[in-house]
Amino acid sequence: MKVTDVVCHILQCKVDKPFVSARGWVYGTRSTCLVEISTDEGITGWGECYGPAAVAKTFVETQYKARVVGRDPFDVEAIWEDLYNRIKDYGTTGMAISAISGIDIALWDIMGRAVNKPVHKLIGGAYRSEVIPYATGLYFIDMNRLIEEAVEEALEFKNDGFSAIKMKIGLGDLKLDAKRVGAVRKAIGPDVKLAVDANHCFSVPNAIKLGRMLEEHDIMWFEEPISPEDHDGYIEVTRALDMAVAGGENDFTRWGFRDVIAKKAMDIVQPDLCAAGGFSECRKIATLASAFGVECVPHAWGSVIGLAATVQFLAALPDQPPAFRPMPPMLEFEQTPNPLRDTLAKEPIEQKKGIVKVPTGPGLGIEIDREILKKYKVA
What we know:
This protein has 13 helices and 13 strands. By secondary structure, the chain is an alpha/beta fold. The strands form three sheets. An eight-stranded parallel beta sheet has the order 11-10-9-8-7-6-5-12. Strands 1-2-3 form a three-stranded antiparallel beta sheet. Strands 4-13 form a two-stranded antiparallel sheet.
C-alpha cells in the first residue's frame, strides 16, 4: 500500500453564543484543519491538527506532503521521525508538530481500516470498552451573570448525566473566582467531580493562593494554573497544594514532556493527540509518564476526528496506577456548541448516562459525512 495524496480541509463555523476564557480570547467561530490521506488501495484516513488551521495547512502542504506521498502507511513511526527531522532545525514545537500530528492520526486510521481493526487494538489493546467523560464548559459569557450562568450550566451537565465537570476560572479577582467555584460546588453537590482550568493566567503566588482557597471544594485538579514555559513554577505550585495540578496541552513531543515528567512538575500531564505528535508520539509520552508515576489524561479540543482519536487512545491507556477499584483516565468532552464535533461524523460520539462507548469500527471508528464537510469547508 502506498500513499497517493495528502489533502487539507479547513473547516469553520460560527458560534451562536461567543464565549471567553481567562486568556481573554473571544470565541466567535470554531475552525480546524483536517488531514485526509488517500492510498492506492482506495483506503482513506483522517487526522486533525490543533491550532490555527491555515498555519497547519501550510506546514502540511509545503513541508510534509511530498515526504509522505509514496510511503507505506504502515511505516508510520518511520514517517514520523522523517518529518520531525525535516523541520528539527526550526520547528521542534508548536504548529510544526501539530501538522505532523494530523498526518500521524490519519496514517493510524488507514492502518486500522486496512486490517479492519480499531486503532486501540493496534496500540496495545483495550483496557476498557467505555470511558467516563467530563464536561468542559462554564466559560465566561454574560459578564453580569458570571456566577448564575456557571451554576445553571453545571446543573445542565449534571442533569445530562455527566459525573464530572471542568469549569473555567481566571476572572482577575481571586475572591470572585473562589466564590464562583464555591457556588458551582454547592449546586452540583459532593458526588460530581469538579476540576478548574485557569488557561495559564496566574502568577505562581496567585495560583498557590487561589488553590488554597479552592481546596475546601474538593477539586479534582487545578489545570494550567501558570504559564506553560515555567516548569520550575509548576513545581512550586504542585508542591504547595493538596490538590492535583495538571498541564501540558501546550507541550509537544516526548522531549517537551521529558523534564516536566522527570521533575514531577505536575501530577497530571495532558498531551493533546492533535498537537503533541499524534498516536505515535503520545504513546511515548504516556509511557514516560507511567515510568515516573505521573498520570496521563489527554487534552481534547476540536472536531469529532480529534475526539475519536482521543477515545481510541484512552481505550488503550492503562489505569494509573492499577488497583482493585482503579480511577481510569477520563475523556475531556468539551461542550460548547460545535457542529464540527456533533455533525461531521455519520454516527457522532455521544455520552449517555455518563458513559462514552469506545467505537469498535475500523481505524478511528467513525465515518465522515462529506456533505457536512462540504458545508463547513472554507479552504
